[in-house]
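Supplementary Note 2. Why include the ligand at all?

Several targets in our set were suspected to adopt different conformations when bound, so apo predictions alone were not considered sufficient. For every target with a known small-molecule partner we therefore ran a joint prediction. The input for 5'-O-[(L-methionyl)-sulphamoyl]adenosine is given below.
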Amino acid sequence: MTNTKFYITTPIYYPSNKLTLGNCYTTVLCDCIARFHRNLGHDVFFLTGTDEHGQKIAKIALENGVNEMDYLNEIIKDTKNLWKDLNISYDKFIRTTDSEHEKTVLKIFDILYQKGEIYKSTYQGKYCIPCESFWSEEQLIDGKCPDCGREVVEANEDCYFFKLSKYEDALRNLYTTNPNFLVPASRVNEMLNNFLNQGLKDLCVSRKTVKWGIPVSFDNEQTIYVWIDALSNYLSALGYLSEDDSKFKKYWPADVHVVGKEIVRFHAIIWPAILMALDLPLPKQIFGHGWLTFDNGKLSKSKKTEKKEVIDPRVLMSRYKSDSVRNFLIGEISFGQDGPYTQEGFLNSYNGILANKVGNLFSRLTGMVIKYNDGLIQYANVEQASDALLKDNVKLLKEQCIDYMLNLKPTLAYKSTLKIIDECNQYVDNNKPWELFKDSTNKERVNTVLYNALQTMLEAYTLLNAFLPESTATILNKFGIDKVEINKDSIFDFEINNITLEKNEALFVRLDIAKEMSELQEIANNN
Ligand code: MSP
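The joint prediction is reproduced in token form.
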């Protein structure tokens, strides 16, 4: 392990419903990035969790006729199961109802109050319960929440305000002097045009009428605004202001908070302002990703899809394995931009990438080693010009993949690894071991070709491990690789000489798209 630390977070989810494929998006992408860093030997802390206070949760629990905690415990069980099935390798799952978290939030609120950053006044305006957001009359679009398009309610109450307006210049300065703070760059323009240029107003940070929250320590009529509570999780998870703050000392500031574009403003405006008020270092980066859209551009978060399609990740995983969901989310939606989900697109991606490339290469090479050398991998060194070319190309693609990943471009990094698979197939096609095999004097050359092809395949699968952990682990285990390490400095150094390969079942069976479509349609219609 190197000294490089890497602290990455997902937003914490509202357990207002069972999580959707859209929610899986952020988590899968973060998991992929976290795994990649671990495979590079970095010391990673990957945080996710649930955002459990606020009006929205209280309302749902009431509608379900249960108390908040009973409602939450049930749904969090489902969330954790979902993350397990998707192989999400979080280091901590935080719940904002954890007492350690609550204690830290109280301390943060107290410090801000003592420092004069928080004061009491009266709020008059609108509130969107699903987004837990305050809006002024002017900000509404057709009288509705500008973020999700739903009805807002009147909020008119005494509350505490955080002096957000005071940080307007500092935030502007932050975006200008540190263009890496908020990416992609388009998000900076959104923040400037939609918020900073309109003039920042102080932010209401407590609610009198909302009881399901953390009570303000010095005013028991008020509970702390759910977004202040929620954002603080990035610190409380590390033990900030607790007896053991070693993780805070080690991992803060966060290397990246990955969030969906609709909550960038909380992370790129409110969060840095609070941290400045606390005199804490700011996260190095906020990455505002796009949305997975359904039914021609609609977001699952706010609207139900009209077209009947299977969008439940649990169903998709049970039919096509967990890596199929990861493959689609990472490979088919360019990180940072919006991208559509369709059942057909999902199935085509499965066939095109998982069956034809990832699964096929392993079956193809295993088949050849069995046919041409009784399954035994034997190092041989009858080199030809095409071997050096292969190595050069693999080296370049590997470097490209690492570079993309370190620059938060997982979709491009994924494509680079798939190109290594293409290179490998091309090398085998060009060298035609099936022709060489016809002449026994070529035995050593056949073994050289197979050896180089297997080395290339393992380069691809070790890089792919962060993207497709389940399937690559199955293959890598057959080569005695239990712990994946990406060697940045050299290639083709897998110790595979004298390993015997056996015939395996195909990792990803090619799907009959028409048949799958009709079966999925039936499932969707019955739901
Ligand atoms: N609780 C807040 C976050 C607090 S973080 C301090 C919240 N929760 S959420 O459950 O509504 O959303 C969690 C994440 O899921 C967000 O990043 C959101 O963008 C993401 N997604 C939900 N549906 C989505 C898509 N359809 N596509 C991509 N991501 C979207 O906001």
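The mean pLDDT is 94. The pocket of 5'-O-[(L-methionyl)-sulphamoyl]adenosine is lined by residues 11-14, 22-23, 25-26, 51, 230-231, 259-260, 262-263, 291-292, 299-301 (CB under 6 Å). Comparable summaries for the other entries are listed in the accompanying table.
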